[in-house]
Amino acid sequence: IGLQYLPEKWKQWRYIKWVIDISDASAGVILRSGSGSGVLAISIALHVVGIGLVYLMAMACGLEINFSSCLILLPPSLLVSAVPVSIDGWGLREGAVIFVLGTIGVASNEAIVLSLFIGFSQVLTGLIGGLVWVLSPNEKVDLDEAEKLLNQSVE
Asked: Which of 32, 90, 115, 150 has CA 20 to 30 A from 105's CA?
């Protein structure tokens, strides 16, 4: 949404242009196909379930934190780990989680344990997904057919 407000000079860069094209195509599919509210509902549900899992990890670590604090504080700190300056967000996530949980009185050693649990669970999830992908039968994807389907859904 905010990409349209970038300075025109930035929009000429190849990678920025690529991101804008992907954003426009995604917005077109979601907004024009009528599935936007469903996609939004699923996205919110997945985020709430993910934060719920982090809350359960916090309870397992013995942290005295309530679900609403997790729901408010953790998404921005986990978003920081998506910044592509480290491998899988290691280090960034830990610093952000220590900072945000420190604002509600959680000790840094307890916060880093929770952050490491979050990181290891993401690695485990990725390994399981990778294993399923590797062991699944290979199906050839016809890129021309996929592009036609995408263009039909946007129109």
From this structure: 90
Q: How far apart are CA 65 and CA 58, in angstroms?
A: 7
pLDDT in tens, 60-112: 999 989 999 999 999 888 888 888 888 878 889 999 999 999 999 999 999 99
Token output for 45:
């549900």
Angle CA 44–46–50, to nearest 5: 115
By CB atoms closer than 10 A (0-12, 13-18, 19+), residue 19 is middle
Q: Give the pLDDT confidence of 28-71 residue by residue, as tens digits.
A: 777 776 677 787 788 889 999 999 999 999 999 999 899 999 99
Structure token pair of residue 18? 């690529």
CA distance readout (Å), 64 to 51, 55, 61, 67, 105: 15, 10, 9, 10, 9
